[in-house]
Amino acid sequence: MRIRVAIVGGSIAGLTLAASLDPQRFDVSLHEERPERRDAGSALAIQPPAWAVLDSLGVGQAARNRAHRITSAALCDATGRHLLRPPGLALHLLLRPALVDLLDSAVPDAVTRRHERVGDPAGLRADLVVGADGVRSVVRRAAFGATLVPRVTPWFALRGLLDGPPPVAEEYWGRGDLAGITPAPEGLTYWFTSHVSDLGAAPHGDDAWRSSSAVDVAEALDEARRLFGARPDRAPAVLAALERARPEDTLAQRILEAPQPRRLVRGRAVLVGDAAHAMTPNLGRGACEAMVDAHVLAREVSRPGVDRASLGRALARYEALRLPPALALPAASRTLMRMALQRRLQPARDAALGAAGALVEAVAPSPRR
């Protein structure tokens, strides 16, 4: 008899899992409240473990054909002065809609798709309920504790795509804000900013996270333009991107931090992706870790001999493999975010980064002529 799997959340983690489970062994249902939101425009860094997952699903080469490779980038201060240039950079960017489309194409036709909001996961008829429903995960709250709700931070993030590539890939750390631009696939520019803002829900209160997405994008863009344009020595690339940005091509979100569960499995419920380890975007690892979570979970429950009776042991192996990164990576990302948005120690931070950059350049091997 097939194992019944209900996947709550139909974005990157949920699609990867649905695509990875053999319909001969699993009866899979994929529950997504708003499928149209999966293709929100942004660019994602695809790292080697994620490429392995895409290859296993048979869409790796198609993804490579649509990715943009970046071999040079710089970390700068707010004015554009280079502080640190990572050596040996080999970064691949893929547009989020392209990644979602490729994962969706790999999902077997036998998977039942339900366009619905899951209010109570306990009502799902399944042997395994997978929370792939992001930072606001209803599965996490229902199975792991109602107190595990996101915390609203003071930070606000904007990101979007523009026609035409920029000449460089750079990230700019200011005093309490950051911004970045980079070439993206299809000849586009991907840009992003983060700053302290009162837009949307106030950063306090137990239920502030519920309304944190209700933000006027045009208002958020105007605020960012005022903030980043307040200094005449701001990096021109940041100001140019903000001036060209259009609300319809821009995502505006308050950054949420989810409390980290000490477990990934409880009973028949299991967490993957942002539901398990939501992190700020500074490491560029969220999408990759979501795909790896789903791949490892599918591998463990698909081992020979795993059935309904032994499913718990398979889930325990998944948790043992994925809990360490689920604990470490969000902490590292938060630390990097706080460093990037430092106010009081900004001069010391820039001096330290500049010294590190000079050291890297001094010891890096010279390019062959």
UniProtKB/TrEMBL annotation:
Residues 262-324 form the FAD-binding domain. GO terms for molecular function: FAD binding; oxidoreductase activity. InterPro entries: FAD-bd, FAD/NAD-bd_sf. It comes from the Bacteria. Its cofactor is FAD. Gene3D superfamilies: FAD/NAD(P)-binding domain. Keywords: FAD, Flavoprotein, Oxidoreductase. This is Putative oxidoreductase. It comes from Mobilicoccus pelagius NBRC 104925.
